[in-house]
Amino acid sequence: MVLRAPLLLIITFSLFFAPQVSYAIDSPNITSPSPSGQFSVEDARAVLSTYHRNRLNIDRAMEITDDIIEKDPNNIEALIFLSRVWLTYGYVRERTKEGKIKAFETGREIAKRAIEIEPDNPDAHFFYVANLALVGETKGVLNSLFMLPEIRRELDTILELDPNHCYGLGMQGALYLFLPSILGGDNKVSEIYLRRALFVDPHLSSAKLYLAMNLRKQKRYNEAIAVLQDLINDKEPAFYPDWYLNKRFALNLMAKIEEEQK
């Protein structure tokens, strides 16, 4: 996830089903259908994994997934992934407030469809709450506060369905980090959730970034720098485009921490 700091900052840009390698947009397994004559969700994921090189690849991933769902409207895997693509589209491609809200609301509705088909799917709940939170954030602080009870319920549901859901854990940790104490914010609780997320997936760059921010708030500067160095030097990031962007934020944050130590 790309670093941001609104009131309800959460890990909404962490990704499921992320390939460990990046594919070129002109790779045969992306531009040409599989032997069955149809593109797969895996093809769409591969295209999305290169959005840091070309943002139009977000649109291409959306087109592929739309085509899959047109042929198979109840394809849970495709619905969840399309919800994730709309989240990315709103976050990366859209420039206007209205456009972002529309993108996140579309992503939320698609995830809602997935939940209706498969209520116990934690990934569907994650992308529902991720898009929901960004709708609230984009509309403003008051809307974010209004949505907070539902956000918390969805996070509880995700972790009830899968206690080791690394993105649910990371999102919970980020929520505790950035909420004011009067609304339940707690750096110690946040740290517990973020470390649990990294125990499940040691290569989740967003969780490392938020953990470093947490440790900085606790004035544990050396530990924060160590976490940032681990992020920067990671050779197997969970999702390369996120790591590519988070690496720059990590370098900036490290410089700020080193300045504070002087």
Walk me through the topology:
Blueprint: H1 28-31, H2 41-48, H3 56-71, H4 76-93, H5 97-117, H6 122-139, H7 141-161, H8 166-178, H9 187-200, H10 205-217, H11 221-232, H12 240-261
Quick recap:
The chain has 262 residues and is an all-alpha fold. It has helices spanning 28-31, 41-48, 56-71, 76-93, 97-117, 122-139, 141-161, 166-178, 187-200, 205-217, 221-232, 240-261. It contains twelve helices and no strands.
Give the number of DSSP strands: 0
Q: Can you give the mean pLDDT?
A: 85
Q: Describe the largest sheet.
A: none
Instruction: Give the oligomeric state of the chains in this entry, treating copies of one chain as homo and distinct chains as hetero.
Output: single chain
Gross morphology: globular
Unreliable spans are: 1-33
Number of helices: 12
Beta-strand portion reads under 5%
Helix content, binned percent: 55-70%
Distance between the amino and carboxyl termini: 30 Å
Gyration radius from CA atoms, angstroms: 18 Å
Which structural class do you get from the secondary structure elements?
A: mainly alpha
Order of SSEs, N→C? HHHHHHHHHHHH
Description:
The protein is mostly helical. Helix content is 69%, strand content 0%. α3 (56-71) runs antiparallel to α4 (76-93) and α6 (122-139) runs antiparallel to α7 (141-161). The longest helix is centred in the C-terminal third of the chain and has 22 residues, at 240-261. The protein starts with 27 loop residues before the first helix and ends with a helix. The model is unreliable at 1-33 (pLDDT under 50).
